[in-house]
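Fold sample X.
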Amino acid sequence: MLAVNNIEVIYSSVILVLRGISFEVKPGQVVALLGPNGAGKSTTLKAISGLLVAENGEITRGSVIWNGERIDRASAEDIVRRGIVQVIEGRPLFRHLTVEENLHLGAMVYEGGRHFRRDLERVYEYFPRLKALHRRTSGYLSGGEGQMLVIGRALMAHPRLMMLDEPSLGLAPMLVQEIFEIVHEINTQEQMSVLLVEQNARAALALAHHGYVMEQGRIVLDGPAEQLRQNEDIKEFYLGLNTSGERKSYRDVKHYKRRKRWLG
């Protein structure tokens, strides 16, 4: 469905951020991109969604293939129409508009919004809280409500691949669990593929089918999510557990040793 092939990304013609990364997302699959801050995870999503140009970035090598066609030179608008929608980090909303008005804007991408009422009820089934708040000005939503709204707005566009950038950022653990359960429900019921960038490795690997670990613009490890959860390096560096299962301070973890580059 999606194949990222050895892409390099440079900002401002001088700053090399992605150094030849390759991965794939299969139909109906949830794929997690893990890694520390600055690894290039968000840049990877923007390279796929066509948003690099807004930040003076460009793909200088490699290709992004979507259903057999190259899209690495396509505009962001064209990529959305093809069925790839990115939910940007930080829950950006039109804060002067109501919840329902924000959802209406998302609906305009899909057949000009002709199915707005039907799609609105579909989103409200996943997010009943949004239905109760449909007249609330979105600038007054809580962090969890705002995250529900940006995901709901993405759903209104009928994506075939939804890319989520740090959906747990700044949220309480109970809200994180609720939102990830809803994403799991969307993936299961609609067979919608999901590419997830997430600092919360435990939550991401519980949701994902497959995971990739990034460092300094490269993929350094990948495998089925269950294998990654059991990998000692992942447990130590990302989950804060030592080999006996006891929790460690992240300050005690000096570096990520990468005992195995690829998982068999």
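Fold sample Y, listed below.
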Amino acid sequence: MRRRNLQVLCGHGGFSRLSYAEWGEADNPRVLICVHGLTRNGRDFDYLAEELAPHYRVLCPDLPGRGASDWLMVKADYVIPTYIQAMAALVARSGADKVDWVGTSLGGLIGMTLAATPGHPISRMVLNDVGPFLPKAALERIGSFVGSDPTFATLAEGEAFLHVALVSFGITEPAHWAHVVETSIRPAADGNGFKLHYDPGIAQAFNDPSAVRDVDLWPLWDLITVPTLLLRGAESDLLPVDVAAQMTQRGPKADLIEFPACGHAPALFEPQQITAIKDWLVG
């Protein structure tokens, strides 16, 4: 795994550093881009990227405000159009005319938006527990977590917090939890304790609870034509069963795989989850 950086134009605040992990041969023309969820970072794909590195050059960015990427000066810029700008720059940096895409939650929404845009670069797309209808109740639950900005006196306190906040990911292996803790918590800037590894400003969209409502993106979904694999956590509240079923009948008519014992969103750490993606992408 190699860590690389790219200067990208992000909203109204000028250019900022986008950091990404690169796996596989640097000259492999076959490129896979893996984009994480709202509060996560590109290290969520370490296990998947390692497995797919013999087949792809795998790029796993930290979206602006997350992980090793810069925080944005204008917090209102933490929106889909900004992320589209950043990902378009990453695709251009890759040198590939076409890329395959794996997107978890927010990363899936970015992929859907790109795939519905004329002239887009996506050949095949994997959506991890997200679709064109987002229920208000699930968004409120996510907002209640994103809106907090805790400080932990010790790493053990941070780990306990993550075990609660990420319980729906279905993580069971101690080594996987250790990886999540290592990549999700950083020393506080003032040297006192530890913080989550993202800008709390990403919560601005959730600051007004009255503005949180059901999100209907079905017209966007119906524009997508690329082969699509839909992954769903069996207990997901963000991707209801009926929405997933409709996604197999409309738009790209996605293939659907459901994973037991997890909700929103499957961590993609387990061998059966990784194998499902690999078999669909690589064969």
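Sample Y note: The chain has one domain: 2-145+198-281.
Also: The longest strand covers residues 15-23.
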